[in-house]
Amino acid sequence: MHWPIWRVKVAERSMEPALRPGDWLLVRRTRRIRPGQIVLARHPERPELLVVKRAARHVEGGWWLESDNPAAGAVDSRRFGAVPGPLIEGRVLGRYWRSRPLFIPNGPGVTPARSERPRRAAGPFAVSCDVSGGRRCPAALARRPAC
Hints:
Blueprint: E1 5-9, E2 24-29, E3 38-42, E4 50-59, E5 62-66, H1 77-80, E6 88-96, E7 130-131, E8 135-136
Antiparallel strand pairs: 1-2, 2-6, 3-4, 3-6, 4-5, 7-8
């Protein structure tokens, strides 16, 4: 079964500055694309390889796909020609970054010493957090219930 939306990770620098290595993309499985959209396609000569490129124009034989950063040694339609429609896997809907594991100095089940616990400041919503070596939250964050 093919899911209609899937995720892929950018591995190369060919689409910089729009997409950087490590970015994650949400891709909608479709072959209905327009010039200017970023698409996910199979490499015409190596179908096991997926490429993320910008659809430049529709030409005879398929779509002309180009990199935003050809100086990065990108492999695109300038090298392999037009990509046939059936090799277009989908259109990029958006980019997101994978969340990093949250470091909790006093993880679950560990009760911090009284001197390490956050102290409540005056006011109904003010919070003063003392984390990572005595650094305090900026005043702009003081209205948040937690840092």
